[in-house]
Structure formats: structure tokens, C-alpha cells
Amino acid sequence: MVLLQTIKHKTPINGTISSFSKTILQKRLKQTSSESNNNATITPLYPNTPLYTYNLGLSYASKYSPPFVSPKTKIPPYGFMNRDKNDSITKWVNEMMDLPAGRGELKSASSSGNDQNQDQVAEKIKSDIRKWGAGEDFFAVQNVGNDLHLALSDGVGGWTDRVDPSLFSQALCYHYSQTSLEFASSEPRDVLNKAYKKLLNDNRVVAGGATFTGVRLGEEGDASFVNLGDSGYAIMRNDQIIYMSEPQTHFFNCPLQLSKIPKDMQQNGVIHDTPDHADIKNFELEIGDVVILFTDGLSDNLPSSHIPILSSKLRQLLNSDVNSHLNEIEKEIEFSRLFSDILVGYGRMAMQRTGEEDQGKSWKTPFELEAKKKAPKYGFKGGKVDDITVMTAVVSEKD
Could you say which EC number(s) this protein's record lists (predicted)? Predict the structure, then answer.
């Protein structure tokens, strides 16, 4: 649940990160990686194959959080977090919320800050994660034998008048996580199919809908993806995007989505897609590759061309003299942690764009460009305020 405090600083387009951002990142590097990183070690079946480690980064932010609402705003409880503590979904959701995560805060303690100050910053992040939640987005991290499953889901806000949309996305991720444990080595779309059927039979969710993207990261660098809707994923190699998923939509701003429709609404033409509509792709990953999973809060606001720029500048900083005390493994750990946070932070700044920056000579958000092409009558400009979640996985070879 990543919050971004208001910062008078624009997202870069010219291939540079300002000295302000560089200073911020240098300060952020002082935070212990254990606060915001999860490592999953994958053991190979065969002794002569490489042993892969996936260093994970997680960052997320609700749209109902500063700067889009007042810091004093009281957000009513939503999702399963504050429900029956003995309920299996509630327990699992709270476990996911306890995972170390960033909030997209592109500023940290003052330059004179000490360890105590850094501890206070980390404690505030934890507190704010609980206060604001992940909005209608949710996520899953699950080790399954020698595989690692990652998943993201974005609850469809159009259900708000009827139900809490976050219930569907949280339950979908829960059932996906539990199903992956029951059916080891299953492909993500098979897991999603079984998980969706379980959700349809789960009385704890009466209605709702969500997009979904997931990946199984295998012991030998094999990666199997499933994607339905306008959340998505990308693979980076040497600071370049070698593949990015295409959004699936019925029409402008209406993604493909899994849904659970009450009987009284089944004749009303409510959108109802299935896991069979999902795109599936398989890749062989290499050491140093970066897998990025994201909800549309990122892809609607931050041009994909900015992602390699941010990646390159972060790597330059990690390889600079100021960070010479870090070994290569520590650099990969820090990269995964910081990169997810940076993407969320810059995505949140892009949400605040008006579309009038630099008298129209500046870059436009992807959502504005798509609106101009497919729905010009609305005259939409600037960024789209939305929940945003980013997960990163950096492929490393264990010694």
C-alpha cells in the first residue's frame, strides 16, 4: 500500500534522474534490505543445473491515500483485513499485508538522519501500509516446491455501488495461492482456472470482478505467465524491455475480467470473461533479468519508455563509489527492492499530471493518449488516479 507524499518534482523524460532524486535514492539505500525484500531460493532437480534465486521487490498504494486524500482522512475498513480473524482468507490477507513492502515514497529521512531516524521512517511505512491498505488491488507470493508463484489482481471499481471490489481481488489471489500449493508444477492458467471455480463457490464473495496477472518462476529460469485484462507484466534484460504484455480490453477503459454475477444481474449484460480468455506466454530467463508485474495504475500513467531509463539510472547509482561496500548479490537485492518502489513513486507522480505541462510540449500519460484515440469526446487530460501495485523479481544465480 504505497503512498507517495506530494513532491514538487516531475517525472524525467530526458533520460536523467535529477540530483534531487539521486540524493533520495542514496538515502534510501541506507535502509536495511531486510525491511523491504523477500528472497525465494529455488532448488534445481538436477545437480548440474544452476541454482536460481529470485530477489523480490513489492510496492503498492491505494488511490484513497495522500496526496489524493487528506492525511487525516478516515478510510472505512474494506476487504478481508478487518473481518473475522479466524477466517482463512482474513488470515492470509493479513499475512500478505505483513510482507515487507514500499509505499512509493520518493523521499526519506533528512541528510543528517541517523539509524534511529531511519527506523522511524521504516516504522511509519509499516503503519501507513496498515492504515491505507492496497485499495482494490491485491497480490500473492507463494513458494510451491521448487517453483515460485507471483500474482496480482485489480478489483473492478464498477462494482462499488453493489459490493466492495477489493473482496473479489483478495479472494482471487487467496484461492490462486492455495490452489498452486495443491497442484504443484501446474501452469498458471490451470491454477487460475481452478482458483476461479473455487471463488465462484465461495459464499464469502457474493459478487465482483477483477483482472489478473500471474507467473510461475521455475527452478531453471523458466517462466510461465498468464494475463487477463489490463494489468500486465514486462521482462527487462540489460535495462531494456524485451517483452511487455498487451492489455486486453472490450472497449476503452473496460478490460477483460473475471467476475461473479448475482442471479438478479445475470440478464443485465454484465461482462463475464473466463480464464480461457487469458493470454499465456513462456520464457527462458537469464541471470540479471528483471520480471515486473503491475496493475494498470502503472501502465496507464507511466510511459513504458521511462522504465528502462529509471532502471539504468538506479543501476548506475548502485554501481557508483558511494555504494562500493555492496557486493553483487546485495546490489541485486537492493535493485529489486528499490525498483518496485521507484516505479510506484513515479507512477503516483504521473497521476498528478494535468496534461498541460510545458505548454503541451511535454510527454503525455498513456491513458490520455488512449483516451484521445478511442474516446475523444471526453477530452481527458493528464494522469488517472488509481490504485497501483508493482512486484519485481531479479534473477540471480546462487553461489
Answer: 3.1.3.16
**9 burial level (CB within 10 Å; 0-12, 13-18, 19+):** middle
> What residue ranges in the chain does DSSP mark as E strands?
38-41, 52-61, 137-144, 147-155, 208-217, 222-228, 232-237, 240-244, 249-251, 254-255, 258-260, 279-284, 290-294, 388-397
Contact 271, 228 (CB under 8 A): no
Say how far residue 292 (Cα) sits from the centre of its chain.
Answer: 8
165: its cell numbers: 471490489
| DSSP per-residue letters across 312-338 | HHHHHHHTSGGGTTS-HHHHHHHHHHH
Yes or no: say if 297 and 3 are a contact pair by the CB < 8 Å rule. no
Total tally of structural domains belonging to the chain: 1
Question: Does residue 8 form part of some domain?
Answer: no
Please tell me the pTM assigned to this model: 0.86
Cis status of the peptide bond prior to 67, with omega within 30 of 0: yes
| Domain of residue 86, residue span | 19-355+363-397
Please report, for the domain that includes residue 114, its CATH number: 3.60.40.10
The per-residue pLDDT for range 91-122, each reduced to its tens digit, is 999 999 999 999 998 765 444 456 666 677 77
pLDDT tens readout for residues 118-174: 677 778 888 888 889 899 999 999 999 889 999 999 999 988 888 999 999 999 999
DSSP-assigned states of every residue in 78-125: -TTTTS-TTSHHHHHHHHHHTS--B------S-TT--HHHHHHHHHHH
Cell of 218: 521455475
Q: CA 82 to CA 73: how far, in whole Å? A: 18
Q: How far apart are CA 369 and CA 371, in angstroms?
A: 5
3-state SS class at 294: strand
Composition of the chain by helix, strand, coil, percent to 5: 35, 25, 40
- Identify whether 5 is part of a domain: no
